[in-house]
Amino acid sequence: MRGTLPLARRIIPLLTVVVALPAAAAERAGPDWKLETPSAAWRARDSSGELVHDGRMWLLGGWFTSHEAPPRDVWSSADGRDWRLETRDAPWIHSDLPMTLSFAGRMWLMGGWYNGRLPGHSAGNSVWSSSDGRTWRQETAAAAWSPRLAAGAVVFKGRMWILGGTGNYYFGTDADLRSDVWSSADGRAWRLETAHAGWSPRAYHQAVVLGDRIYVLGGGNYVPAYHARNDVWSSADGVSWRRETETAAWVPRLWFSAVAYRDRLWVLGGWSKDPSIDYADVWTSADGREWERLTAGGTWKGRHEHSAFVFEDRLWVAGGHARPLSAEVWSLHVPEDFFARGR
């Protein structure tokens, strides 16, 4: 999840911008975020793979600059404060904006981008898995779906799913965007569920499972023609899609995070252009249609392409591009009855 930034992705001072909320947007005061560590053991980064597996949070690869190969390190933590280096050099190379999941007792890293703006850059469609983060097995060098990065990825109905994405990061056009949906039970054999989902082709979006439906939220394209959306779609089978809203209460954006927590969808942070803004907002919804902003007295600085986890009954935010890159880890505990209390 990358950022803001003109072509070289330079670090520039953060603009102070007041973003007006849509008139219909509701707000609710929430608990404060807790800073678990201001500087985790891993080097500050964004665009990592992230997942929860075997009682730990995991961070895989990511992005440092557009002019070096992405890192291939793997880190894990049981508390968000102490992080353990599992391997410094995993065998996969497409570790910038990959798709990552925990499924069938293993961690999975799929697709992604390699080499930034350097010669030899490429998108991938390899699929790798590991039970321990140290030893990785290539399940296939070339999945049936085309090479891509920044797709949605979920586990749903006993299968892994890949949704949309783009085949070219810094050098593509809208023609490289995808709206296809694929699923697999083993990471090797992939089934095309639909070549063209109801939502428009996009990357830098999020996909989340809530209840018995997959939700696709926001996203768009970065270069050469930036566009971002704030629509929300859902599906009970990955094939037929229902538009829940064309314009959610949160501002259209790329490079945000989204999770399911407390039986609700959550949208956290992200970035939009003209002017370039990194968001520190948190939004929740029980149905994808009606959204409310959760405010807090203590929270993280606006950022994009951060990692988000649901772990140990808490919501977590780690790293991301907060101008500069961050190695912070934050957590939030929301009581189970919080949304039943009313505002």
What is the compact description of this entry?
With 343 residues, the chain is mainly β.
Walk me through what this model shows.
- With 343 residues, the chain is mostly beta strands.
- Helices cover 0% and strands 42% of the residues.
- A 5-stranded mixed β-sheet has the order 1-24-23-22-21, with no helix packed on it. It has a 4-stranded antiparallel β-sheet with strand order 2-27-26-25, with no helix packed on it.
Radius of gyration from CA coordinates: 18 Å
Overall SS class: mainly beta
Strand content: 35-45%
Query: What's the N-to-C terminus distance?
Result: 33 Å
Strand order of the largest sheet: 1-24-23-22-21
Low-confidence stretches: 1-23
The 3D shape can be described as globular
Order of helices and strands: EEEEEEEEEEEEEEEEEEEEEEEEEEE
Mean pLDDT: 93
Strands, total number? 27
Main sheet properties: 5 strands, mixed
Question: What's the SSE blueprint?
Answer:
Layout: E1 26-29, E2 34-37, E3 49-53, E4 56-60, E5 74-77, E6 83-87, E7 99-103, E8 106-110, E9 113-114, E10 122-123, E11 127-130, E12 137-140, E13 152-156, E14 159-166, E15 177-184, E16 190-194, E17 206-210, E18 213-221, E19 227-235, E20 242-245, E21 257-261, E22 264-272, E23 277-285, E24 292-295, E25 307-311, E26 314-318, E27 329-332
Parallel strand pairs: 1-24
Antiparallel strand pairs: 2-27, 3-4, 4-5, 5-6, 7-8, 8-11, 9-10, 11-12, 13-14, 14-15, 15-16, 17-18, 18-19, 19-20, 21-22, 22-23, 23-24, 25-26, 26-27
